[in-house]
Every structure is written in structure tokens, then in C-alpha cells.
Amino acid sequence: MSAQELDLLKEKLITMRQDIFRCLQHLDDGWQELAEKDIEREEEAQKAELSELYAQLDERQKEEIEAIDDALVKMATLQYGKCEGCAKQIPLPRLQALPAARLCLACSARDEEQKNIPPALP
Fold first, then answer.
1. Cα 88 off chain centre by
2. What is the chain's percent helix, strand, coil content, to nearest 5?
3. Which residues pair with 82 in a beta bridge?
4. CATH code for 3-116?
5. Contact of 83 with 104, CB cutoff 8 Å
6. End-to-end Cα, the chain, rounded Å
């Protein structure tokens, strides 16, 4: 991977991180607006549903930020682009599509397959 390609990926990661924080700020502003309104029973149910959605989004976004931060640390330590499963170089097109990717496509497929396997019968 060239230095120019690495710089472009770094810029993309930083932009993704900034977008997540902007989205979180927008969600927080929306939550504040809901909290300030006088709410009736039906609206309370909607507020509870939105609250659950916000919590889920927050968790997913925290995971995304952690993945982005891990990728930026790997860039700084010259470990970026190595698959955590097989230690081979992750192909550039995969990194361009998913700059925070930790696994190559084969290891990612294996990981997903293992997560979806139901427990063995006794």
C-alpha cells in the first residue's frame, strides 16, 4: 500500500469518526427536544421506543468509533491492513470499502459463520 493510499484511508477514517460524532450530537439534540415537551400517555410510549432506539444507535456508534480508533492506532504503529485472523495483508479494495476492517474477507466469512452456528446438541 502506498503512502498516498494510506493517507486517503486515514482521511476517510477521520471523516467517518467526525460524521458519527455529528450524528450523536444530532441525536442528543433530538433527545433534549423530546425531554422538554409536555408528553401525554401515547407520546410517552413513543418516547420510550425512541429512547430504546437511541440507546441501540449509541452502542453501535461506540463500536464503530472504537474500530476507527483501532485502525488509526494501527496506522501509527504500521500494523494497519494486516488481518487479525491470518496476518495476511487485507486487499486494498476491502480497506477502501471498509477502512476499519480487522479481517480479510475469508477470515470475516469464517468469523460470521462461527457466530451463526447453533450450539451442538448433547
1. 22
2. 70, 0, 25
3. 89
4. 1.20.120.910
5. yes
6. 48
> pLDDT grade, residue 101 (50/70/90)?
very high
Q: What are the cell numbers at 80?
A: 494497519
CA distance 23 to 26: 5
Query: Please, are residues 92 and 4 in contact by the beta-carbon 8 Å criterion?
Result: no
**CB-based contact 105:96 (threshold 8 Å):** no
Stronger pLDDT, 84 or 57, i.e. the higher one: 84
Per the structure block, which three cell numbers stand in for 110?
Answer: 469464517
Residue 121 C-alpha from the chain's centroid? 34
Domain residue limits, the chain? 3-116
- Residue 12 CA to residue 6 CA, distance in Å, equals 10
pLDDT in tens, 109-120: 998 888 876 655
Per the model's pLDDT, the better-predicted residue between 34 and 102 turns out to be 102
Q: Say yes or no to pLDDT of 11 above 70.
A: yes
Q: Which of 82, 66, 65 is nearest to 74 (CA)?
A: 82
